[in-house]
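Give me structure tokens for this 474-residue protein.
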Amino acid sequence: MASFLDDPSLERNFKGHKDAVTCANFSPNNKHLATGSADTNVMIWNLNPKARAFRFVGHKDAVTGVQFSPSGELLASSSVDRTVRLWTPSIKGESTVFRAHTAAVRSVSFSHDGQQLVTASDDKSIKVWGVHRQCFLYSLNQHTNWVRCARFSPDGRLIASCGDDKTVQLWDTASRQCINTFTDYGGCHTSVEFNSNGTCIAASGTDSTLKIWDIRTNKLLQHYQVHSAGINCFSFHPSGNYIISGSRDSTVKILDLLEGRLIYTLHGHKGPVLTVAFSRAGNLFASGGSDAQVLMWQTNFDAFSYKEVLKRHSRRVNPEPPPHLADIYPRGPHLHSTQTSSIEINPCVMDTQTTGPAIIDVYQHINSKVSGAGLETGAGGGPSGGSQVTRDEDTLGYKVTSLEEGCSGLPSTFTSTLEHIVRQLDVLTQAVSLLEERLTLTEDKLKECLEAQAQMVLQVHQAEQRKSAKIATW
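Here you go.
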């Protein structure tokens, strides 16, 4: 059983990315951690210290979001290259490419049944995709600026989105309409999330604040301002009782939502923290930043009453009693400022000089197949020039042995032809996207005309009835 001294502790430092780490997500079985980076690569780290890591190569620009499917059989990634990829997290590196956005894609998220994906983009749109049919389903267009994040509710009936237009919007997936907009915010939004039971949403912003609303009453529950710079990311603990947040001030903060208190400030990154994520069990959390580090922490604080921790910690002060998250009718916004001090943790990263786990590069074959409008599928191979796959029990199940370069190369004319086809598909996809928007506008206008015509017919019918009644009275 944990003791009162069990603060969050640094478990591992993953090294392999060559640029800022922008996103992270734990697998459902708690055995792997996926990360994306500005170096254009997706990494899958095995939490077994002796196992190898996998680098998936395919995106042509910075990766902005990663998420495992609920079953763990797929991994979705989004990128500034305007595409979304569905990877099979194995040595084969097979992936399907979704193309419909006309600008950078900023986030990707599965529905909780794994049947759909929702993506947010700088083209001001939110798009929903069918996973198994691998098809585009519909767009949500009401934001007036870049959309930074979009997430499904736990029951899949709602989508929450936020962006640079300083609004958080709530969408009904059945009617595909925006049913609520939260505008009481001072800066652009960077991230939005539902809590575990779907009753609340939280949003972070560039004005260094984090707010939580109850969507049943549309009331602001809590308002935190504990960072000294903009908040880039946050994550709910599976219990719904805690939130971790990462900021441009280079710190990770841990908040207790039931008590409304800042309880920990974690140092370790040299530069802005760009991503934080709890594991599905809540016993681990990861953070990544502009320093290209991926830090994995043991939670610890949820295994024992943190009140005992605070009583025995000399650097802790006693703030005023805060509100409870369950208080759904607050008298006014509750501001939790940086005056509430917390336990400072400065971990000693011991492995900065040692090499990280062995990394296997998994490349996308250039002879990818087009499987439909806006979709591209392909199978990945091993390192450049081909690979031979054999069993190896201390890895995820495979070992890669490099072969001579060029032994399986393709003719240059064939390669250039395929590249030309891909470019033409990009142009076609953008044209389809524009046509879709125009069709939506045309449908709206047609609906208005039909409603006006129906109203006119009704008025004429009522006039005729009145005229007939007058004639009958005469």
